[in-house]
Every structure is written in C-alpha cells, then in structure tokens.
Write a structure and sequence with these properties.
About 50% of the residues lie in helices and about 15% in strands. It is of the alpha/beta class. It folds into two domains: about 140 residues, Rossmann fold, CATH 3.40.50; about 190 residues, Zinc Finger, Delta Prime, domain 3 (Up-down Bundle), CATH 1.20.272.10. The strands form three sheets. The chain has a five-stranded parallel β-sheet, sandwiched between helices. Helix 1 packs parallel to helix 2, helix 7 packs parallel to helix 9 and helix 13 packs across helix 15. The protein is elongated and about 70 Å long.
Length: about 350
C-alpha cells in the first residue's frame, strides 16, 4: 500500500489518496519466502534462482538452505562454488556452471554481489534458457533490481525462479519474529514481540541474533514476557520505542519526555532513525484510521489484534489534520538527524524538540 499526502499547511487543506498495489507473484511477501524455503526443504529445487532487492538477509538465507540441502559437508570444497561479481566475469561463471559435480548429484554455484556485473548480467540469459541439469545456479543481485521492461529481466523471469525482495512492513516483521521464535519452540507474548521489533526496527539479522539469545533460557516452554526480553536481550521494558509510541498516542507527554531522557542516555543502543521510523509508521496508521471510507481492522492497519485498542485511542486523540502535520514534523526531524539543511544535533535534543512540536500541534 502506498499513501500519498498532499497538503498546504497555511490553508490547512489536504487530500489523502490510498492506492493498493497488486502483489505480483514474483514480488517478495512473507508467504512466498516461506513457500520457497519449504520447497527447498522438500527437495523441490529449481535449477536457476535470481534473487534481487534490498533484503540481503533473505537472499543469504535461501543460499544457506540450498547449501544445506544439496551439498554434503564433506564435499563442500568440491561441489560448492562461490563467485563474486567484483572479482569474476560472465565467462568464468559460464565455465563454472558447465562443469560437473565431483561427488554429489548436483553442484551449487552461487554468484554473490552480481550487481557489479552490471550490463554483463544479460550475457547469462542464453545459459538460463538452456541450463544444465547438474548445476543449481544462484545469482544474488543485492540492493539492486533489474528493469522489468528489459529483455534481460523478461528472459530471467521466464527461465529462473526470480524473487524481488521488497521493503518490509511492520506487520511483516512482527509475523517473522513470531514464526522464527516458534521454530525453536519459543513462545513470545504480543508485547514481547513488539518490544523486539520496536527496538531493532527492520534489521532481520539483528532480530535473528535477539531470538537466539532468548533460546539460552532454561525453560523454553513458558511464555516469554517483557521481563525476560529485558534480562536476555537488554531492551528496557519501561524505556523503549514501544512505550514512547504509546505515551505519545495517549497524550501523556510528561511520560514521553521522561522516556526520551532515559532512552537517549545511551544513543548507540537506541538509534534515533529507528525511533523516528516507528513513530512515522504509527501516525500513518492513525491517519488512515481517521480517513473516510477506511475499514478499521488489524489486518488493514497491519498490526496484531492485541494492539487495536491502543491505536483506536490514539486515533481519537489525533485527528487526520493533526496526523498530517505530525508526519511532516517527523520528516523534518529525520532530515535533521542526518544533518541535512541543518547542523547535526544530539539525538536526545532532537527528540525532545519533536515532542514539544507535537504538543503544539
């Protein structure tokens, strides 16, 4: 879903348009990544994979699962070939994929940093159209995408498993934390999941490390609460992004200021960009809830049903007009945090100024 907000602050007029974007089959969604990983586990493996977009965590995860499924640990040096776009050429890649495995039924060829091959990537399309069954080729095109109108894209899409990894939504991260925890028999309550996601943001590698820390608990059968999140991961159950968001939503600004003072005593542990991103998404949801003809359901907002009452209360406290103004304030704060059009200021001062501006809205 994309949201376009057009407004004039002097006249206090604005229009909101919400466009639903079709979820093309080859675009990344959580269900698809789960489907791909399940297929690999079941041995339903494609000969060619083209993985592109801005989610290196998932690209690496697919490579890891393919390696675990296809390559015997004792034969790794013989049947697994790793090439890097900065160091290799299309000629070397073609020579490699046309060779034969030494021990296993298939060899796995992974081309990392393939984005550095640039236009030469198109020279691989003849092979993809007539690939060799003994080779599984994985092309990792990280933080870049191909032009969907190009011949190269169309050929790759037709002759390989092409997945474009798109930016995650908050609700995606929430679901991912829950799913990954369940895989290792961890039972997290909704507040614990929100505490993890609100402190880490969209960094899936950091989330993975946090979940692994929780697995060190002596009894994984019990419900994991925010107290244990604080104990094992180190996130404060009282002074965190989630509690800051709630205090602002409740208009308890004294509490907001106190939380900010506590959080940003250690700015390294609480990156201000994560906080601003969380608050931006929060007010986008509040804005939607106050817009006409918007059906308010947890699924439409992208939240767990457990938190719906909190959002409804915040929507009563902040009108659509106020939400638009606050989103603008958050955008300005984000620019300031990056030193754009201003001298860089300390995170604590930036956040305190933001709260004062929100109070004045």
């Amino acid at each position: 879903m994309f949201i376009f907000i057009i407004f004039n602050f002097e006249l206090v007029t604005f229009k909101i348009k919400v466009f639903h974007i079709h979820k093309f089959q080859h675009f990344f969604r959580l269900k698809e990544i789960q489907s791909v990983l399940r297929s690999i586990s079941e041995g339903k493996i494609e000969n060619n994979y083209f993985l592109m977009g801005n989610q290196p965590y998932f690209i690496n995860l697919i490579c890891k699962k393919l390696e675990e499924k296809l390559i015997d640990k004792n034969h790794r040096e013989f049947d697994l070939r790793l090439l890097y776009g900065k160091e290799t050429s299309v000629t070397e890649i073609l020579e490699t994929v046309k060779s034969y495995p030494m021990f296993g039924e298939k060899q796995l060829v992974i081309v990392r940093e393939a984005q550095y091959l640039k236009k030469d990537i198109g020279l691989l399309t003849p092979y993809l159209e007539n690939y060799l069954s003994q080779t599984v080729l994985v092309i990792c095109y990280v933080n870049k995408t191909l032009d969907s109108k190009s011949r190269t894209y169309k050929s790759i899409h037709k002759n390989s498993k092409l997945i474009e990894f798109k930016p995650l939504y908050e609700s995606d991260v929430y679901k991912w934390i829950s799913l990954e925890a369940k895989k290792i028999n961890l039972n997290l309550d909704p507040k614990s999941i929100m505490l993890i996601s609100s402190n880490i943001g969209l960094d899936l590698e950091m989330i993975d490390k946090a979940i692994k820390k929780l697995s060190l608990r002596s009894n994984n059968e019990d419900l994991i609460t925010v107290d244990e999140i604080e104990k094992y991961i180190g996130f404060s159950k009282e002074y965190n992004n989630f509690e800051l968001q709630n205090s602002i939503g409740d208009k308890k600004f004294d509490k907001s200021i106190f939380i900010i003072n506590q959080m940003f005593k250690n700015a390294k542990k609480n990156p201000v960009q994560v906080t601003l991103s969380l608050l931006h998404n929060f007010f986008i949801k509040i804005l939607l809830m106050n817009s006409k003809n918007f059906q308010i359901t947890p699924q439409n907002i992208g939240i767990h049903p457990f938190f719906l009452n909190d959002y409804q209360k915040a929507a009563r406290n902040f009108s659509l007009e106020k939400s638009v103004k606050i989103i603008h304030l958050l955008k300005q704060a984000d620019l300031k945090s990056k030193g754009i059009n201003t001298n860089r200021i300390k995170e604590r001062e930036l956040m305190l100024d933001l709260i004062l501006d929100i109070i004045r809205v």
